[in-house]
Records
---
Amino acid sequence: MRKILFNDITLRDGEQSPGVNFFPEEKLEIARQLVRMGLPIIEAGFAVASDSDWKGVNLIARELGGQPGAPVICSMARAHHKDIDAAHQALRPALRPRIQVVLATSDLHLEHKLKISREECLARTRESVAHARSLVEDVEFAAEDATRSDPAFLFQVFAAALEAGARTLEIPDTVGYAAPHEYGALVKAVLDNVPGAKDAVIATHCHDDLGLATANTLAGIAAGAGQAECTINGIGERAGNAPFEEVVMALKTRPGQWGAEADIDTRHIVETSRLVERLAGMAVAPNKAIVGGNAFRHESGIHQHGMLCNALTYQIISPESVGAGAFRLDLGKLSGRHALMTKAQSLGVTLDDQTFEAFHEAFKDLAAKKKMIVDDDVANLLKRFAPARA
Ligand code: MN
């Protein structure tokens, strides 16, 4: 089965989250985790943006990119010599440097932002990709706002990028506008209509403005994309990017659905998520898939009973597989007697049937009045029913 090349863009697009600033040493700490998980490509930053960005790219290129078997280290660059040269300089210590050249292709961006014609866009694509290729072998070309571009023009630009030496064609859904079936169809159309595209790698890059970044990325993969650009915890510009942990675990859990697999050591996912959460200062929502605090917690009685019989009843991913520890049964007003009995036993108390029924009733009364039940609540209540032990 095809193995998807993951390009982690936490250190570049992720850093574009409002209020996030990773210092170069922090970027290195995150990049070490990415290497631990086996990420084949790390987009380390946007070298020309600032001295600190340049240093971050350079530090990662030097510390993690110089050994045989090292991942590809990438820097973003706009389609200007100044950007491309800065990326090249910062990437010098890397054995496998990649420059990603970005140029918008939608008429909206060309007319209103860049103020250039389609012809100038084509010429700039050829010229900038050729310049990047004169410096490094591995060039990725990203057509910013691809999903709102005229497809016929997008194919022309991609063809020009390939002719000039690009090896990876990125299809950014820059503003999270695409629908999954539409994004998948666009990936297929690029493969079918751009001469040479089948010998290149097509990369997904999806934003989450409509909550579709994961779905769009997977649709792109199913349609033949070979590279997925994701961020840890889905951080990034505005509503963020496709969350790495979601795309990886979707592939791991049901590879047959997407016709591709992820060659990633998932056991470090949760610790990586916590590290990025701390360094970005962006809390992960408790109900976030895979890495949220509630992802492996079960509270209702029906579910808890199932989990105690066989964890597969209500869990499609084992918490151990992502480094989340064991699943948890939380007690609340919807919890049942099985979980309550298990909790009492874990606190060292076994009650006879009649006493347990009374304890269960008292517990339900208490749980209905409190927002959250903690172990101390159960222990205190147990004292009333098993005073000698507790
Ligand atoms: Mn982006």
---
Amino acid sequence: MKMLLLGKNGQVGWELQRSLAPLGELVALDRHSTDDHGPSGDLAQPERLRDAVLRLRPDVIVNAAAHTAVDRAESEPELAHTVNAVAAGVLAEAANAIGALLVHYSTDYVFDGSGRAPWQEDAPTAPLSVYGTTKRDGENLVRASGARHLVFRTSWVYAARGGNFARTMLRLAQERERLTVIDDQWGAPTGADLIADVTAHAIRQTLRDTALAGTYHLAAAGETTWNGYARFVLDTARLLKPDLAFKAQEVAPVPTSAFPSPARRPQNSRLDTRRLRHDFGLTLPDWQTGVRRMLAEIL
Ligand code: NDP
């Protein structure tokens, strides 16, 4: 089996390089995998992307690339639209043309964040931001293409590699006596490693049973706020590394309005993952398990 992975160096893309490797031959590209002769992995050039797919003829395309800079997207909506929507549609059309399975990722930001109940897959979308709108448009283009697809909506993604929320909290707790962290946005921090592992299982099962294709919510179990997440990070870090010199005595709860930002974010990012767990027979561990593991790796 041949697989084409786009966005190989992102949080999820990096973990997919590991999790997809046992499934077959993997061609992994990033935006810089572009020259006059080789295949292009640049989602800002959808036509070249189409050529790459038609030339490589993979059995599975996994699109982990996206314009994920949520605030920046507000000031560069055309680029966000091209990368998150147009390119996803082109990938889906090309996948349909060659009979490939397309795996694509989307976000809790397609919802408006109202209420307290976890969002189900068929709940109406109403994005609050350019990023959310372009991701919603991308999903819709994938679904409209006729391509066999798996769309995974996930939330609050972190990885051990690169910068992340936990690293920021650990640094600030060493610099400041008091941290203020938002406590009115709810969701589940979800490890890129979990997303990649679930993706590999789902690909295997969907190739055997195409009725499994569709849209799924994929997030770690449980829920918290950014404030609860920060407190868990610092408490766990103290246990894992008692010699860490934290100045911070307090992680004070503040509303979202305390940190004005260009993009609006949903308050309720809870995702209902029953469909994924039921259809694929998978268990999703609670969010603390993955965060604890990530901290053990980075500390
Ligand atoms: P990252 O930002 O870590 O990775 C995205 C990757 O896409 C980066 O490697 C980036 O490259 C690449 N990329 C950006 N623009 C282009 C382009 N024009 N051509 C090719 N590659 C490009 O994101 P995640 O791994 O966290 O996200 C994976 C998926 O999950 C995305 O679909 C995202 O929308 C979704 N998601 C993410 C959430 C999160 O909290 N991060 C939450 C919910 C959903 P470069 O580094 O060079 O910019």
